[in-house]
Specification:
The complex is a heterodimer of chains A (472) and B (88). In chain A, 27% of the residues lie in helices and 26% in strands. Chain A is an alpha/beta fold. Chain A starts with 10 loop residues before the first strand and ends with a helix. Chain B has 88 residues and is mostly helical. Chain B contains 3 helices and no strands. In chain B, α1 packs across α3. Classes of the chains: A alpha/beta (472), B mainly alpha (88). At the A-B interface, α5 and α6 of A face α2 of B.
Amino acid sequence: MGLPLNRVPDLLMDERNSLNAGEIRDALSDIDGYFDGNGGMNFSCVGIAARNTIGHALLILYFLEKQINFFIIPTHTRSDAALPPFCDRVVIVGQNAGGGYNLPGLLEWQDNPAYIKGKERMRAGSGAMIVMSSGSTGQPRFVKFHSDKLWANAAACAERLRMNSRSRVLIPVPIAHMFGLGAGFLPAWITGANICLIEKSNVVKLQDKTAGFRPDITLMTPTLCKMFLLVNKRHLSSGMYVTAGERIKKQLYNDFESTCGLLLNLYGSTEMGAIATTRIDDPLEQRVSGAVQPLDNVEIDIVGGEEGDISKGEILCRHPARFDCYIDEYGNERADRGGETSWYPTRDLGSWRDKGRLLVLGRMDNCINRSGFLVSLQEIESRLEDLFSGIDQAIVIEGGPETIRCAGLIAVCELKKGQELAVEKVRELCRDAMPGHWIPDHFYFVAELPRLVNGKADRALVAKQYSTIIRK
Amino acid sequence: METVALDHVKSELKQIIAYDLDANIDFADIRDDISLFEDGVGLDSITIVNFIVVIENKFNFSFGEDDINARLFSSLNNLAEFISYRVG
C-alpha cells in the first residue's frame, strides 16, 4: 500500500506555519528531489525526534511512502543520549524561518556514533517504523511496524472516528507516540482532513487553536481534558474530542461533555495501535462507563478469570494491523514475535459489557487476588472516586495485615479543597456500593498526594510511605 | 505611576514563576520579554493552570471569558501589562 500523496489536505498547519494543498505538494516534491539528488540516501535506519511540526510530519510521511526505515526517538530522550546501534543516521528538522517553506533546507543529518557497520539486521528500504513501548509492563522494547500496517490501522481509526475530507483535526498530543500518529495524524491525512499540530500539549495554545482553527475532532489526554475545562472560561465547544490513557472520572466526563462537547475514549497500545473506541452513537451513560467496541476486524478474547469471577481476565487481541515484531538494539527480530493471526496478550484486565462492549479495568500488574477474585486496584480507585464527590483522586495499594485468603488493601485519598470524610462513613457506604473483597482495610485522607513532575500521582512513593505506616 | 505598578506586577510574576511554580528557572534568569511557553519558561498545562490560579489569588481578580489566549502568555511583558491594566 502506498501513501496517497496525490490526495493531500487543503490545510496543514503548526504553530508557526500554514501550508495549503499546493504548498504541501511542493514541499513533498522538494523533499523527493532532495533525496533523489543525494542518491536516494540509502539508510539502514534513520532516527528522528518527531515533534508536532509540519516538517517532522511531512518527513515521516515521506519515509513511509518511500519505505525508508525510521526510528522515532522517544520524546523524553536527552539530546546527548546514545541511539540504538540499528540507526545509522539521525535527522534533525529545524524551524522554518519564514517566507516559503523550504523543507530540505531545514534538514541536518548526523551519523550515529553507536552504529556498527555490518552488524545491522534490518534491510534498507524495508518500510519499517520503529517505536519504543512505554515500558509500563517492564523494560521498554523496540516495536517494529510495517508501513502497510500503520496505514491499515489509520484507515480503521478514520472510519470509526468518521473522519473525512471536510474534517478539521487538531492534534495537541505528540505524533511521536502511537496515539498522536496512528489515531490522529495518519487517519487525518489518509482522509484528506485539514490538520493542525500543536506542540507540548499546552492548554492555553489548545484554547487558542480551538477558537481559531475550529476543529471538529481534537485528540486529548485525560489531564488535558481536566486542564481545558479549568481554563476554558468561554465554554468553547468544538466538535468531538478523543482521549486515550487512564479512565476519565464520571464527574469530569460529564462536566467535559456538557461544556466542551462529545468525548470518546480510545483504547490501544504501542504494539497494536488503536484497538477499540467508545461509539459516537452510544448513549452518554455507556460512554461515561468507558466501555469500548473493538474496531472492525479486531478480535478480543478475555481469558484467565479466577475462581470467583470468570467474566474478568486478561484482554487478548487479534489485530490485522498489528506490529510486526520486537527487535533488539541491532535490529534482530526477537523470539517473541507473534503473527497477525496470533493472540497478543495486552497485560490489561478487562470484562465484557452489554452489546459486545469491552471495559478495560486496568493493568494486570496492578491486580491482586482477594478471596479468589481477581481485583483491579485501578477499578477500586475509580469506584471510590465516583462514589465520593469529595475525593479528588484515590490511590489503592496492597499492604497491611494479610489473611490466608486475602491480601490487605490501603486506600490513600486526596480530598478536594474544603472537603472532609469520616472513615467509618466511607466504609459503610462502600459496603452498600461495592463487593466486600473490594473494600480497602485502611483509609487515609490527605490534602495532597505526592506527585511526579508530569502531574501524575507518585504511586510508588505512596506505596512506600503508607506500607511503612501500617507496618509500624 | 503606571510604570511603577507595571514593574511591581512583573516582579511579582517573576517571584511566582521562580518560587511558587515547578518551573525550574531562577529568578535572575527571568527576563521581561521571556516567553512563558516552551521557547522560554516552558510552562506545561498543569503549571499554567496553577499559574493562572496563583495570579488570580495574588492580584485579586479573575480572568474573563476571552482573556486567556496564547498571545497573553507569549511574554511576561504582555501578561504584566494585562494584569496592571486589570488591577490598576
